[in-house]
């Protein structure tokens, strides 16, 4: 696994999201009660940023384009219209540094 530093922990306030990118891979980092999760940034239903145009309620992000919902822990769809899960990315915290493995994104079975 190749982890890349993308931000500091303090850059993602609790209950908020931050968009980070590596090449053509935009990833959203979500802070749920102090725990960080990383998913693909774009909704699987429409080309819409979840970090910049979504609403985080607990561990569920709602896309503001068509109101679809996803669990940021698993990437699974919680409410249609999306029917395809989000890709999730391995995330690691080292001190205050947040690192993501952009090459190891996967779908939860």
TrEMBL record:
<dbReference type="InterPro" id="IPR017941">
    <property type="entry name" value="Rieske_2Fe-2S"/>
</dbReference>
<keyword id="KW-0001">2Fe-2S</keyword>
<dbReference type="GO" id="GO:0051537">
    <property type="term" value="F:2 iron, 2 sulfur cluster binding"/>
</dbReference>
<keyword id="KW-0479">Metal-binding</keyword>
<dbReference type="InterPro" id="IPR036922">
    <property type="entry name" value="Rieske_2Fe-2S_sf"/>
</dbReference>
<dbReference type="GO" id="GO:0051213">
    <property type="term" value="F:dioxygenase activity"/>
</dbReference>
<keyword id="KW-0411">Iron-sulfur</keyword>
<feature type="domain" description="Rieske">
    <location>
        <begin position="4"/>
        <end position="100"/>
    </location>
</feature>
<dbReference type="GO" id="GO:0046872">
    <property type="term" value="F:metal ion binding"/>
</dbReference>
<protein>
    <submittedName>
        <fullName>Biphenyl 2,3-dioxygenase ferredoxin subunit (BphA3)</fullName>
    </submittedName>
</protein>
<keyword id="KW-0408">Iron</keyword>
<dbReference type="Pfam" id="PF00355">
    <property type="entry name" value="Rieske"/>
</dbReference>
């Amino acid at each position: 696994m190749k982890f890349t530093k993308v931000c500091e922990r303090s850059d993602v306030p609790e209950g908020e999201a931050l968009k980070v990118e590596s090449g053509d891979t935009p990833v959203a980092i979500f802070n749920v009660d102090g725990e960080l999760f990383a998913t693909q940034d774009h909704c699987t239903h429409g080309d819409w940023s979840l970090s910049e145009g979504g609403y985080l309620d607990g561990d569920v992000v709602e896309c503001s384009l068509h109101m679809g919902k996803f669990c940021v822990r698993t990437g699974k769809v919680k409410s249609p219209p999306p029917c395809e899960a989000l890709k999730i990315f391995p995330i690691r915290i080292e001190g205050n540094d947040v690192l993501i493995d952009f090459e190891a994104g996967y779908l939860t079975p």
